[in-house]
Amino acid sequence: MKKIFFLVCVGLLSIGAYAQVKTPAASPAQKIEQTVGLTDVSLEYSRPSMKGRTIFGGLVPYDKVWRTGANANTKITFSDAVQVGNSQLKAGTYAVYAKPGKQNWEVIFYSDASNWGTPEKWDDAKVAASVSAQVYPLPMKIETFTMSFDDVMNDKVSLGIMWENAYVGVPIKFHTDEMVTASIEDVMSGPSDRDYFQAAVYYLESDKDIKKAKMWIDKAIEMREKPAFWYHRQQSLIYAKAGDKKGAVKAAKTSLALAKEAGNDDYVALNTKSLSLWEGKAQITE
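Above: the chain's sequence. Below: its structure in token form.
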């Protein structure tokens, strides 16, 4: 009985040792996503509240770098290159910092987004973009710090920042027209050699129409600017499956020569084995 009581006590103590009280975060995290044109944008930040405090010029000093929120630095991620002010930002993730002023804010996109708050040592070389944004007074108080994607159009959006009675919007431009134009030109120009190659290999491996596969692999090789041993390797296999022994041997020899030139021993061995098989038999064996 004593042993049972002892085990129960140990179990209760263990539960107590690992139990944790859960309470709401003082500055809850938020993640929002927005597609602008053809580009995906995501924003991750934490949202402190006023709680009766004076924010700008008080909790958040004027003209000093601020994390633009709370906790870890605010992060914005672009799937494609964009333009902020006069700066071009590559696709990737950036920290968003700000220097609030009474009339204007300096909003900074920083290439190192791994900091908790502001960097311990600021590095100007990591400032990917810096833009001045006008402060617009609001007719009401905004209790909780808020960021948003505003005025969304095909090629631009405003990164909105709002708290207390201030709003600033940072314009971000997107290269949507260039991307769409490139896409149209690519589609209108027809399939590429890679498209034909992939279609041919799929038909070969899926036991579909081998005549189509043969036509497509020939087209791929014809369109490709620089001969590729892997293209001719697949051509030899397709020709073999189509019953064209002469064509299979020719393609395998071309692939073999190109593989030797490239120093690819694997394809040298594959082609050598196939040629030994195809040249040594009257009928092709798959």
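The two ends are 76 Å apart (CA to CA).
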